[in-house]
Amino acid sequence: MASLKDIKRHIGAVRQTQKLTKAMNMVAAAKLRTTQNRAELFRFYADEHARLMDEIGRRCKELSHPLLHSNPESQKVLVLVFTSDRGLCGSFNTNVFSKLDAKIVELREEGLRPELYVVGRKGCDYYKRRRVFIRQDLRGEGGSFDYGTARMVTNEVVELFSKDAYREVFVCYTKFESLTRHAVAVEQMLPLVQEELKELSASEELDYLIEPSPQELLGRLIPRSITIMVYRAFLESVTSENAARMQAMENASKSCKDIISSLTMAYNKARQASVTSELLDIVNGAEALNG
Asked: What is the pTM of this model?
């Protein structure tokens, strides 16, 4: 049985851990408020951009752009995956790996060769151990990833898609739905596929004046659409990461509280047993003297 000193030292260590988990919970909550606001605002921008693309697409009879076509004879597929740079975020990375592993197996069964562009240190470490070919990686940019970084990643992906003749490019990220719900998604990024255009009613139809020509304007907007897709995937991913870390630290704090309660009870029982033993020794000694 552990001594009173050992139990007391254990309680002190757990309390220090509880202080750390509470502090990390507060930091994650503060970051979550910022990233969630950015993600929600950017969703409106991305949706409006997609609506504009659809509207211009209606006016464009013929459109030819390198990002709209791929090489069907190529066997290579690139997957852009977003993971975290740090741990202690529950099952956030595990869910991403599980989804992407299933996608890799599916691609290989189709006779394709998947390659990865990994954003985040955890993803790089995981897939290096599993010997999956990492074509490009980006580490330590989680705190400074902005629209400029998204444009840089987009340029690299577009260059790889064009020069190395990839058949398709996918993006794997975690969608933020709520504080407790995060869904991992794998979506096609290249060649760019426009959603099926919905016919607008006469009351909803607007008469846009488009300058320059729809073909020229779409030629400029298509690369921007890829950048928007990349930046949106990052914002969704980092928001989900902060929510997962906040939830994990909250659960860790509750576990520390339960452990402290259990150790305190064990400490009280051991202390009571020690006092009882000392009293018995005193009583037995007194009886021996009175003997």
From this structure: 0.83
